[in-house]
Give the backbone structure.
Amino acid sequence: MDASAFDRVLFALGLDLTAKPLQISAPAEICELAERRWAAKQKKDFTTADALRKEIAAAGWAMLDRKDGYSLEPAKK
């Protein structure tokens, strides 16, 4: 099957592989908790950072740390 035939089959099935993933923005209060947690981590206040991570998780969000920052995503169930 050539590429154009494959694309037509996908179209017929209602599938769009070129669609961008849905971006979900965290609520402002979750972003504020995340900012506070990130600041606590930078100060090496890990007790506060851990407590804030638990608050974020209890609200149904996950905070993923990176070397240069963090990201927020809905918690997996």
Summary: Strands lie at 61-66, 69-74. DSSP finds three helices and two strands in the chain. The mean pLDDT is 87.
